[in-house]
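seq:
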Amino acid sequence: MDLTPQRVLRHRLHRQIRSISREGLQRASLQSVPATAAAHGCLERDRIISSLISDFAYAFRVEPDGRLIYEWVSPGFTDILGYSLDEIDARGGILSLVFPEDLAIAHAHIQRLNAGQRDTAEYRIVSKDGNVHWLRNHAQPMFEPQAGRVVRLYGSTQVITDQKKNELALRTSEARYHNLFDSMQEGFALHEIICDDSGAPVDYRFLEVNPAFEALTGLTRDTVLGHTVREVLPGTEAYWIETYGRVAQTGEPTRLENRSEKLGRTFEVVAIVPSWQRTAAPHDWPRRIITPSRRAWPPMGPTVVSMA
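struct:
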């Protein structure tokens, strides 16, 4: 017999739940459930554990017709959603609180659980005060062989609204950056410096370029990304690598004007270390620099190069 701590915990909870009427248990938090001092200690411990690992925890009984009946919930449930269990029942169940656009996600989540699969899903819930909350729900179905179906669901739920807001803000910021990146008149390339065993810069790898860089140099993004300058432009002048390497190692920006015989053009370039790496120690690799090209002869437009 499997006597793992998780199995023992579930067995204790299930046994205690069965010893109390649904009316007495379903409408109460875990603190009000215990019938004995020993049971109180067990359930109080479970309540504390659930509050530490999630915002609220719950147990559903799954009826033969598929309806989900609350057997217990931790106090955070009503704190977050604002509804009592009676109010949720009157509305038609927990799915009535799901944000309309996320109903398909919630239904698919329940279908996987009813099939006996442990599952995690993220979707939005509309609380009683009208606020929308993002939830991450982890649930474990309990299959009953005699019944031939899932008869109970245990779960824990985390509120991830702030995380989702931060992700949206990051995506918005990245979109603005890419719009600026793609529309800027200066060419831009991000490079990673490659050093030999002695620490001397010997090459650099293209990590990112913008459309202006392509127009300025005649090199396409697909051709250069992931490749080194010596692979893309064999025989390229050493001063490009030496200068960019020095900027990356010292963190000191520089301006240079030099010619690329391979490209047949002369560039005016400013090389700087990106702000997010200015606090790095000189020996902390990789490091990046940004190098805008103000002029190119024959005229091609400005360019920005960055190195790590």
